[in-house]
Design goal:
There is one protein chain. The protein is an alpha/beta fold. The chain has one domain: Rossmann fold (3-Layer(aba) Sandwich). It has a 4-stranded parallel beta sheet. α2 runs antiparallel to α6, α6 packs across α7 and α6 packs antiparallel against α8.
Length: about 190
């Protein structure tokens, strides 16, 4: 007996808010565009490899900003490169998200004090949704950051601004740390 033979009874109907259905579809198909600039890019590439299998989370790396909804800025952003970061960000369709990966893209890293050529954080030129600390952060930390972006998408509602969604996410206290710890413990076993 197939679905059509059984008919459409109340048991076959799923009732959910439109927000929940749209957010589920968006968070289950994140298409990040990697913007690797320094050593953090190596860790980002390792995360995209088969050992970590991002596709199990519905995350498929894209090379074009017009096909992406998430930009991962990984590494040192120089003043000259900042213009390109902004240009690529503007080419991405809405809704778009930014994940800053590593100390250099978060706050300038070791170049903070004496590096006149380094941007002191990518958030000075584009809005950043999730920061992943580390120098360079491990692939597990990047996966945790991607999970944080998915939680941010899950919390959004139609008509809600990004700042309201970030505030709502912070109030729930959702943290990706348990996932990171579980991955490390299973990798060592």
């Amino acid at each position: 007996m197939g679905l059509l033979d059984a008919g459409f009874s109340r048991d076959n109907v799923l009732v959910a808010p439109v927000d929940a259905v749209l957010n589920w579809a968006r968070l289950s198909s994140l298409w990040p565009m990697g913007f690797g600039l320094a050593c953090c890019a190596i860790e980002m590439m390792a995360t995209n490899a088969s050992n970590y299998d991002l596709e199990r989370f519905g995350i498929f790396p894209r090379s074009s900003p017009r096909q992406s909804d998430l930009m991962i800025v990984a590494g040192t952003v120089s003043m000259k490169m900042a213009e390109r970061v902004v240009r690529l960000y503007e080419q991405m369709p809405e809704p778009r998200y930014v994940l800053s990966m590593g100390s250099c893209s978060n706050c300038g890293g070791p170049y903070w004090e004496h590096g006149y050529h380094v941007l002191k954080g990518v958030d000075r030129v584009i809005p950043v949704d999730v920061y992943v600390p580390g120098c360079p952060p491990r692939p597990e930390a990047l996966i945790g950051g991607l999970m944080k972006v998915q939680e941010l998408i899950r919390m959004e509602q139609i008509g809600m601004s990004r700042q309201e969604a970030l505030k709502k996410l912070a109030e729930t206290g959702v943290e990706p740390r348990p996932f990171i710890e579980r991955e490390r413990s299973s990798a060592g076993a």
